[in-house]
């Protein structure tokens, strides 16, 4: 399943508009906060698709049957751009387990690049719901490599990929190369992907905008 949340009018689109705007992008604190808020909204939307059970809760005046999550998800983030987005998710799923993975582009002299996965801290994933959040789903290659690395810690029951902006090509790549039990959530899906795997119109480098330029 593919969900493009920005197709419906909501305050989410206000946050996305600010993160795309080259003038507003000059305020890195604002960018991080908007990325966190979009993470909160994405988590809320994902929560509707998870499994729920009834629980009897005792109040000062009696008891009430309420729906609660059957199982807490594991929230996984690709460093470093995903950190504010992850925090937004964790604000909603505040009992969730967490995983962190480093993935970066190693550029070659000919202009090409390879995605390198080096660091991973991850709990057991067997039979759990995994939410893999990465602000930019460009080619889809990073997500595939990260998922393959995480499989060493078990096979999730369900997988949700959450992104601020995805490319149409990246979404198709995920559909072809990752398991069928994956749901993709994107605030916006852009049609163009450059030869250097940058999304157009996109918003630029989310990691640099959130934390400053890197060498």
What does this structure look like?
- The chain has helices at 11-20, 28-47, 82-92, 141-150, 168-177, 206-211, and strands spanning 2-4, 52-59, 62-69, 74-79, 97-107, 113-121, 129-133, 136-137, 158-167, 182-190, 192-193, 199-200.
- The protein has 215 residues and is an alpha/beta fold.
- It has a single domain, classed as Rossmann fold (3-Layer(aba) Sandwich).
- Strands 1, 4, 5, 6, 7, 8, 9 and 10 form an eight-stranded mixed beta sheet that branches. Strands 2-3 form a two-stranded antiparallel ribbon. The protein has a two-stranded antiparallel ribbon with strand order 11-12.
- Helix 1 runs antiparallel to helix 2 and helix 2 (28-47) crosses helix 3 (82-92).
- The termini are far apart.
């Amino acid at each position: 399943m593919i969900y493009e949340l920005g197709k419906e009018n909501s305050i989410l689109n206000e946050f996305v508009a600010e993160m795309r705007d080259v003038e507003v992008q000059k305020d890195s604190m604002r960018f991080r906060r908007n990325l966190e808020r979009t993470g909160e909204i994405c988590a809320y939307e994902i929560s509707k698709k998870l499994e729920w059970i009834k629980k009897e809760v005792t109040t000062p005046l009696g008891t009430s049957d309420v729906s609660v999550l059957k199982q807490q998800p594991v929230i996984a983030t690709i460093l470093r751009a995903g950190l504010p987005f992850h925090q937004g998710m964790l604000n909603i799923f505040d009992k969730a387990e967490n995983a962190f993975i480093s993935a970066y582009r190693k550029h070659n002299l000919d202009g090409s690049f390879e995605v390198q996965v080096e660091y991973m801290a991850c709990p057991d994933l067997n039979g759990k719901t995994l939410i893999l959040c990465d602000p930019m789903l460009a080619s889809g290659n990073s997500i595939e490599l990260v998922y393959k690395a995480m499989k060493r810690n078990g096979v999730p029951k369900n997988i949700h990929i959450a992104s601020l902006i995805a490319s149409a090509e990246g979404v198709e790549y995920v559909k072809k190369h990752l398991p069928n039990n994956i749901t993709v959530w994107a605030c916006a899906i852009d049609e163009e992907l450059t030869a250097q795997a940058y999304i157009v119109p996109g918003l630029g480098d989310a990691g640099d905008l959130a934390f400053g330029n890197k060498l």
